[in-house]
Amino acid sequence: MTGTRRTLAALGAAICLVALASTAALAAYPNSMAATGDSITRAFNTCSFPFIDCPQNSWATGTETTVNSFYLRIRAVNPGIEGRANNDARSGARMSNLPEQATTAAGQRVEYVAVEMGANDVCTSEEGNMTTVASFRSDLETAMRTLGERLPAGSRISVGSIPNVYQLWSLLHTNRSALSTWRSLGICQSMLRNAESTSREDEERRLRVQRREVEFNGVLAEVCARYTNCQYDRNTGYEYRFEAGEVGTRDYFHPSVRGQASIARIEFPLVTF
Q: Do residues 105 and 147 make contact, with C-beta atoms less than 8 angstroms apart?
């Protein structure tokens, strides 16, 4: 073989390897997905009209380019997912609702499921109404078993940690508008009741609520670790120090559009397909 032919052969082989690598990378990204969770995943209160779900702004399945959701990030690499992103979350959902959402996602035969659940198990009308750790664990195990047994072979699952509600209090407890809104709407009273108070009693209650959240995140990590196709975010969501601009000013509780974008930005790189 002449030198020219050897060069051309080598070049052809290199092109084939690049093409194969590109095809493999494309195949690794899912052709379908579902998101489970609560009002955070539904992007509640981010539309121009207040107090409604706004799933187009969702960190998970949204189509709003400024958010750059998981769905849009996957679609940029694999156009095969176009139009195949299901938002199965429900505003107000608790972990007790996840088994039903998991059944829905499994029935959709998706190749990837994102799980973000637990904020409403922490944020309740009063401390005594928080979900018990045992119930939280049992419902999560049921949901994960459903996904593990019924999703197509090779499907992936990602589980996000619950955002730090104590940080929400710390960030906004001196904001008069936030205080008034939390009080009038009865938002997350387990943590945010008497939000302006610095009494020992109120602070001890807040710390107990925070400990329950830490326990919940521990359960999320532990149960996810039992499944080879499940990835936990290593508490990235919980440890993220969100800013006031990432919280909506209608209820001073749900992420703003900017907050939804931040969730997608910090969480998506943790998912390996």
A: yes
Both 9 and 136 in one domain: the answer is: no
Report the distance separating Cα 138 and Cα 13, nearest Å: 53
CA distance 113 to 30: 10
pTM of the model: 0.90
Range of the domain at 83: 31-270
pLDDT digits (tens, 9 = 90+) for 165-211: 999 999 999 999 999 999 999 999 999 999 999 999 999 999 999 99
Mean pLDDT of the residues in the chain: 93
CA 130 to chain centre: 20
DSSP state of 229: T
Contact (Cβ atoms closer than 8 angstroms) between residue 196 and residue 179: yes
Say how many Å lie between the first and final Cα of the chain, rounded: 42
Distances (CA, A) of 143 to 171, 223, 224: 33, 10, 11
Q: What is the mean pLDDT of residues 16-35?
A: 64
Asked whether residue 1 falls in the same domain as residue 42, the answer is no
